[in-house]
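User: Run a structure prediction on this.
Assistant: Running it now.
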Amino acid sequence: MTGRAKEVQELEDLYKRKKPELVAIYGRRRVGKTYLVEQTFKNRFSFRHAGLSPIENSRIGMTEAQLTHFYNSLRSYGAEDTQCPATWLDAFFRLQQLLEKKDDGSRQVVFIDELPWLDTANSGFITAFEGFWNNWGCHRDNLMVIVCGSANSWMLDKLINNHGGLYGRVTYEIKLMPFTLAESEDFFKENGVLLSRYDIAQSYMIVGGIPYYLQYFKKGLSLAQNVDSLFYADDAKLTFEFDRLFAAVFKKPELVKAIVIFLASKNAGFTRKEILEKLKLTDGGTITTALNALITSNFVMRYMPFGLPGRVEHYRLVDPFCIFYLRFVGNKQRLNAEFWEENVQSQSVVAWRGIAFENLCFQHIGQIKAALGISGVATTQSVWSKRSDDTEGTQIDLLIDRNDNVVNMCELKFYKDDFVVDNKYYRVLQRRTELLSGVIPKKKVVHSTLVTTYGLTYNEYSGVFSSVITLDELFR
């Protein structure tokens, strides 16, 4: 299994421990949570069940449908063919009976996938699950219960950070993250898809490191051909994915989509106040819940822009798939089946690459810090813009503010060749350094850093950069 060695080892270690385990796995939809558990344990399940999707099923009668489906899973694992449970209390008692019947002293693994989908309105699911674990499960030294969910806010609020009967009951949690560039490269190699690192980086800028999307890339096709196949062909796999993403895991999908669409309109993001004003919302719990859900699902990043007075938080859309979709797919009335191949060198695509590369760098801060030799140094990352009376002002794509009294002023450049600094750009960088030096504490110094694809052409101006980080280093 590509890219999940750490998580597999964690699960195997938990399996070997001789104590009850309640393991919660959460992460963005399509990131591979189910696949991780199934490939790790394969034929070792004592019981496995997955909740019914609210998209494919009517919400009317959903509790009854979920209970019937759970009963069918019980029967498939050897439970007696009796009457379908009428409540979740009864359903979990049946599960308890099944596990006791099958108990031979060896480790019992129970896997309940898409747990939040089971918690339908007024169903009493959480109370029943709490009773199952607190009254019985937590006393079984050979029991390992694994629960998964893509509704991250539910997993955090109702389970991991529960303040009621499940408080502190989760023994281990795993937030499954998207693949890194290196893991994406390994995935492509595993599937026989041959792409250069330049094109793998672009694929990441389009769909992120989401295994579900990467699996649709076909060997023998160029990147452009694959993008057309995924988004623009008559049978494109991801044409309707944007709507599915939000409908399946968010309580208020239309509100969440509206926030995402608005955030996509400016790369630096917006303040909470600006979001409220644009969407004509009142401040309160609804917007807080929606924003937190987007943050925990890695669609949105919350950050504090450097140097702004009042330390006002900003929200920035960072999910590559959403950014790409809203820019090049969702706003088109009619899709040309070869759109990407025909427009790959267009100005709009070139401009998008610059912005998308910025997000890619934010998602690989760990690799950038490693290349700078500061992996162990505490840092904060941000963007910075400043207006000046005598100039047009400036904007810095990425600032790494370090606890060792250095601020890395990073220029992020996605180029086909080595980057060249000319006299004009040299002056721009000098001016940016002067402006930034004027607002940071006197004990700190600015290091100008270039993050680019292939490197830097050395000339009389190239010394303006104190360090250069290439795409190869982002693949570490």
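The chain has a mean pLDDT of 93.
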